[in-house]
Each structure stands twice: as C-alpha cells, then as structure tokens.
Amino acid sequence: MRPLALIAAILVAGLVPAQAFDAQAFDAPVEDVLAGLKRGKVLPIAATATLMRASERWCYLEKDGACAWSDIYLEVTDKGATYEIGNAWNADYDIVFTDKGEFRDGRFICEIDHDWLASVRAFARSDNAPIGGRDLFALKQDIHDMADPVGHDCFDYQLRGVDRQAGTIELLQRQYPFGGPDSDPAKDTLVTLHFDPADAAALTWYW
C-alpha cells in the first residue's frame, strides 16, 4: 500500500460550478453533473449513473488508502448497473463478486433477485494469490451460510465534497431497507469516488 499524499478536502457549500476551480480533474460529463448539484442534496439517478460510468472505483469508509468495501461499475445503462464488489471476507481472504442493481423512481439504485454467489472469486490476503479448488468451494459454502445472496434494499446518494486535485468526489450513501420509504440513518455510509486509475488500483480492503 503506498502512502497517501496530503489531500486538502474541498467541501462544497452551495452550487459546485466547474469555473470555480483552477484545475479540471474530471471529464465534461462529470463536470456537467457537478455544475448542477448542491452539497447535501440527493443526486438524480441520471447524475449517479454518470458518476458510475466515469469513476474507476467507489471506496466505502476509506481510511489510509483502504476501503471497508468497494465497487467497480462494469456496465451502466438507463435501467441499471452491473458492478464488481470487493471486500475482505475474513483475516485470510479477500473476495470479489459481481452484482446487479436496478434504477428506480429517478433517484434510487435497488438490489434485485440476482444470485451473486456463483461469481465469487477469492484471494489470499497475505500475498494476493488466487484461491481455487476445494478451498474456494469451502469458502463459498461459508459465504452461503452467513450472507443473504439476494437483497432488496435501495440506495440514494447525497453530494458531500469534491477534491479536484485528488480526483475524488465524496458522497453519502443512504440505505432504504427492502425498498421502504424511509432510510436507516445507522447505515449511512461515506463513499469516495476515485477517478484516477492509478489511485484506484492502489486501494486495498481492510479487515
């Protein structure tokens, strides 16, 4: 893990016009999204989809260059997204798997009936060596016993901050259990969107 450079966080107090910054770290579609957003306001799902397409990795609860879990958006359409989730499963293994979500009501991405368990891959945390054969089979059995392979929660996002020098955007993810009308504040989660490929590739997962 490489040390992080000192980052001066830019918290956006009102509108976030592109011309208010000396450097333009993002491509034109992202700049257009930022120009129409206010800090603390919910993103329209079209804006969220633009950020999904343009970003390299979404890092949840980032600290010291590592994530509690992360998303890489593989395909984003007008209807939803396919994404790879990665996290440390335990002290010995990191896992990655592919899941899908559906866009709803111009605001949410919602989990659907997609069994992601079959797509699980695993790596030793000690040396990043891939795990296969009986070890992977046993790990999948453990995951099956401990995790619900199909969820039905929905999520929306609020803008929290922009750092063009670092090439990151910070959002607050809010979770709506089983697609209900109210979010669960206890599950609000900060997520840092990384747009620089090298910085995104250097991120790890902590246990």
Task: Summarize it.
The protein has one domain. Helix content is 18%, strand content 35%.
Ends distance: 14 Å
Give the H and E element order. Answer: HHEEEEEEEEHEEEHE
User: What's the total count of β strands?
Assistant: 12
> What's the shape?
globular
Number of helices: 4
Strand content: 25-35%
Name the quaternary structure: single chain
Largest sheet: 8 strands, antiparallel, barrel
Average predicted confidence as pLDDT: 88
Task: Tell me the count of domains.
Answer: 1
The helical percent reads 10-25%
**CA gyration radius, whole angstroms:** 17 Å
Could you give the order of strands across the largest sheet? 1-3-4-5-6-9-10-11
Report on the architecture of this protein.
It is a single chain. The chain has about 210 residues and is α+β, with helices and mostly antiparallel strands. It has one domain (about 25-155, about 165-205). The strands form two sheets. The chain has an eight-stranded antiparallel beta barrel. It contains four helices and twelve strands; from the N terminus they run ααββββββββαβββαβ. It is globular, with a radius of gyration of 17 Å. Helices cover about 20% and strands about 35% of the residues.
